[in-house]
Amino acid sequence: xxxxxxxxxxxxxxxxxxxxxxxxxxxxxxxxxxxxxxxxxxxxxxxxxxxxxxxxxxxxxxxxxxxxxxxxxxxxxxxxxxxxxxxxxxxxxxxxxxxxxxxxxxxxxxxxxxxxxxxxxxxxxxxxxxxxxxxxxxxxxxxxxxxxxxxxxxxxxxxxxxxxxxxxxxxxxxxxxxxxxxxxxxxxxxxxxxxxxxxxxxxxxxxxxxxxxxxxxxxxxxxxxxxxxxxxxxxxxxxxxxxxxxxxxxxxxxxxxxxxxxxxxxxxxxxxxxxxxxxxxxxxxxxxxxxxxxxxxxxxxxxxxxxxx
Length: 309
What we know:
Blueprint: E1 2-6, H1 16-26, E2 31-38, H2 42-48, E3 54-61, H3 70-80, E4 86-90, H4 93-106, E5 111-114, E6 116-119, E7 122-127, E8 132-137, E9 143-147, E10 162-165, E11 195-199, H5 206-220, E12 223-226, H6 228-232, E13 253-257, H7 263-266, E14 274-279, E15 292-295, H8 298-308
């Protein structure tokens, strides 16, 4: 039994979600092969070869995969699928985009967003916005799974795998890459940060995010997040949203400022190691999951906390 893991990368380096996905794959049993599809991605392949638990790295280096368009990648993975019992990818926007297409092409169902591996065919995954966990078992001939990266420890870079080129290259001709707009920040990336400071609708404006949240985050070397209410109000861009329909985070420390803790937000951060909530409402739902709850006016508390730090 061999397992194919799709490597998420930017043609320069592996994303941390890939390392967590490899950890999940090793728990399923069997040899783990890592697929690097991109253009000019040899550096990624060499890094992938060092991932502990990986026995082989497959490299599809072709212009068709330069931007990892789902229409092209899904055809590549489908062509490789015959030699594998499992196909696994991170539960990121990339994985959620192409892997269901692979499942459709292979005419099998898939298990999405797993948080634990029970055995090779049985997995745990959150349901009802994270309020319950379902244990699901699949009997498909090829098991297709996406992995929630925050639920598994990242694999270490202590391995030494063989690198093998994949000759297959297919351009579906159905889509083309137009452009990307990247938010540039000196702060850590939200989904991989060890500390996250998030603000909610109680901040009342984007200017207050800049005035209160960002100085606190800078003192801690933290990433900045936000609730959906703050994003919908236009205070901050949507790439900062934490929650069921935003980004899933599990940092060592999560500080929620002025966030009531709607069920959808809790689904995106409740696995954080330590949760600190600052809120003037002791009955707010987030009080139920917080390790430390500070009742007070954020406009007074946050500047004082930042000054003490």
